[in-house]
Design goal:
Layout: H1 15-41, H2 49-58, H3 61-68, H4 74-78, H5 87-96, H6 104-107, E1 119-123, E2 175-180, H7 193-198, H8 212-224, E3 228-231, H9 236-243, H10 250-264, E4 270-275, E5 285-288, E6 291-294, E7 296-301, H11 307-324, E8 329-335, E9 350-355, H12 362-390
Parallel strand pairs: 2-3, 2-4, 4-9, 7-8
Antiparallel strand pairs: 1-8, 5-6, 7-9
């Protein structure tokens, strides 16, 4: 008895099938050509962590969870509650670096000076609107003129501190932190008569009542946590005014001071440049346990080739702040525009911190400086413990 063999014949003579075959062939060829061009242009370069970071930032949490669920079943259940995945939008962003929801991605490479607003969100606790992103603005000429006799608001008195129970850890007199202010005359609307009268935050500049007060408070709080620190007192803005130099040269001026103190004190390893933001009160203030605080955020200069190390230090401080005071830190932002380096190449532990904005009070900034000092101390002493364990023991 013989089995009947069954089969079927596919007719490739149809016009529709021929057309589909041609389109499929051309599409495959185009993909291979584009892939070849892409890899040829990147020959000799590895995929950097910066590029990987940009790709993951472009992905929503839903996409990441969906991707991870292929290997970790737990995420399959979690990602069901996330938003729908827009694969076409994701692919468009990865290929073109254009985000349809962010107009800066259309304009950033075409308009001169627009790079000043090219801020990358490296770490954020919440989704931020464009109006909430930090930006660096130069004060108008009238704010930088040589000052005459004007009425000045007296600095607010520091709040009474509760005595610490016991100071166990100490740097034993060594100054390991250097705190300075590149834009040292940045002040507040409530402290500058001209700014109050015109309600113009760009005029909030003063030679006495300014952001240097916050640096001094931060240094005092670090000392109470056993960490030796010093505060730079150079009036960089005043120097530029006297020379008739552009305000944009502020970082070049402050870099000289940083290098000078590094040469004088080899124990210095941490450098913090304190600023205040130009945003208004609603974007720079948070209320915690019935008290108002000036919010902070960290700025990382991405023109520094080792910027990721600086980001790691900033991330540790950010996490330490958020652990105890959720919402106080707005996150970590990377910038290539403007100066784009912010003196951070001098050390992997060099960061720029914006404390509050033009409408915050000195009391709010002081509260934040105390919290910031606690977080920095926690990170510092943890790093010291790790270093002590890794150092070889003497026989």
């Amino acid at each position: 008895m013989y089995r009947k063999s069954r089969g079927f014949v596919v007719n490739l003579n149809g016009a529709g099938m021929q057309k589909s075959f041609v389109i499929l062939s051309l599409g495959t060829a185009v993909i291979f050509v584009l892939a070849g061009i892409l890899f040829a242009s990147q020959a000799g370069r590895g995929l950097s962590s910066q590029q990987v970071g940009k790709m993951t930032v472009a992905m929503s949490s839903g996409v990441l969870l969906h991707t991870m669920s292929y290997e970790i079943p737990y995420f399959e259940a979690v990602q069901k509650n996330e938003e729908n995945i827009d694969v076409s939008s994701l692919a468009f962003r990865l290929i073109t670096s254009i985000n349809p929801k962010d107009p800066r991605s259309f304009l950033g490479n075409e308009l001169p000076g627009f790079s000043l607003f090219d801020t990358e969100v490296l770490v954020s606790g919440k989704e931020l609107a464009l109006s909430e992103l930090p930006f660096e603005s130069s004060p108008p000429p009238e704010a930088l003129k040589k000052e005459g006799d004007t009425e000045k608001a007296a600095p607010a008195q520091a709040e009474t501190e509760k005595p610490m129970e016991q100071e166990v850890l100490s740097t034993n007199g060594k100054k390991v932190f250097f705190i300075y202010n590149t834009h040292n005359r940045e002040s507040w609307v409530h402290a500058v008569p001209e700014a109050r009268a015109k309600n113009n935050p760009d005029l909030a500049m003063d030679s006495e009542t300014n952001i240097t007060l916050v640096s001094k408070r931060l240094s005092q709080s670090l000392e109470k946590n056993g960490i030796g620190s010093s505060v730079g007192t150079t009036d960089f803005t005043g120097r530029l005014i006297n020379r008739g130099a552009a305000y944009a040269l502020s970082y070049a001026e402050s870099l000289k001071a940083v290098k000078a103190v590094m040469a004088q004190n080899r124990d210095l390893n941490y450098f913090i440049d304190i600023h205040r933001d130009s945003l208004r009160r609603k974007s720079t203030t948070v209320t915690l346990d019935g008290k108002s605080y000036a919010q902070i955020h960290f700025v990382i200069g991405m023109r520094n080739k080792n910027w990721e190390k600086n980001q790691q230090f900033a991330l540790k401080v950010h996490n330490a702040v958020e652990k105890k005071y959720p919402g106080l830190s707005k996150g970590i932002f990377g910038k290539k525009g403007g100066n784009g380096e912010y003196n951070q190449s001098v050390s992997p532990n060099a960061i720029l911190i914006e404390v509050g904005g033009v409408d915050n009070t000195i009391e709010e900034c002081y509260r934040t400086a105390d919290v910031l000092a606690e977080a920095i101390a926690e990170v510092y002493w943890e790093a010291e413990k790790v270093d002590a364990k890794t150092k070889p023991k003497r026989s």
